[in-house]
Each structure stands twice: as C-alpha cells, then as structure tokens.
Write a structure and sequence with these properties.
This protein is mainly alpha-helical. The chain is built from 3 helices and no strands. The termini are far apart.
Length: 116
C-alpha cells in the first residue's frame, strides 16, 4: 500500500470535487438568466431555461457517477505501485477524458431530447 502515490491522491481529491459539483448541479442549479448564454457549457445548453436546467441536471448526475468511479480507481491505486510521473499523467488523463465524455454525453442528451 503506497499512500504517497500521486495517482490515488489526484483521483481521490478530484472525486470529492466531482461529487460536490454533481450535487450542486443536480440539487441547487443556478437560475437561468439571459446573461448565462455565454457562460453555458455549450451553445445548446443556454438556448432556454428548459435546456439550461436539463443540461445541469443530466450533467450533474453524470458527475456523481464519475466521482464514484474515481473513488474506486483511487482506492485501487493505493494497492498499485506507480512511479510518480506515470501515476500523475495517468490520473490527469483519466480525469480529462472523463470530463470530456460527460460533456459529449450531455450534448447528445440535449440533442436527443430537444432536437437540433
């Protein structure tokens, strides 16, 4: 068991952030305003209040699921012995790919529900 493993430290810390982000987006999303169109994650999410709340709720649920996956990988990483740089690059890659997949899945769900 290696507690100084950068892989586990990054994944477990990020999982906490993802959990709170998902909880915030699901339970207490920011109210839609016309000014938020520029701040939305995509051009489809800011089209209307329905688009806004759906994208936050759907994306929030995906963030909650992703945080569970990160916790599992982080605990598994405690048992594995990575070199510092390999663990760092691997953990950052997992987080970046996961966030990108969440964005793409949210976009696809917006298109499926509301059309183009």
């Amino acid at each position: 068991m290696n507690v100084e493993n950068s892989f586990s430290i990054i994944l477990l810390t990020t999982s906490v952030l993802m959990f709170f982000t998902g909880w915030w987006q699901t339970k207490k999303p920011p109210k839609y305003q016309e000014d938020f169109k520029m701040l939305s994650k995509s051009k489809r999410a800011g089209r209307s209040p329905e688009h806004w709340y759906f994208s936050l709720s759907y994306g929030g649920n995906l963030y909650l699921k992703f945080s569970g996956i990160l916790i599992g990988l982080g605990i598994l990483g405690l048992l594995l012995n990575f070199q510092m740089m390999v663990g760092f690059i691997l953990a950052i890659s997992i987080v970046v790919i996961g966030v990108a997949v969440i964005g793409l899945k949210t976009e696809k769900a917006l298109v499926n529900k509301f059309g183009k």
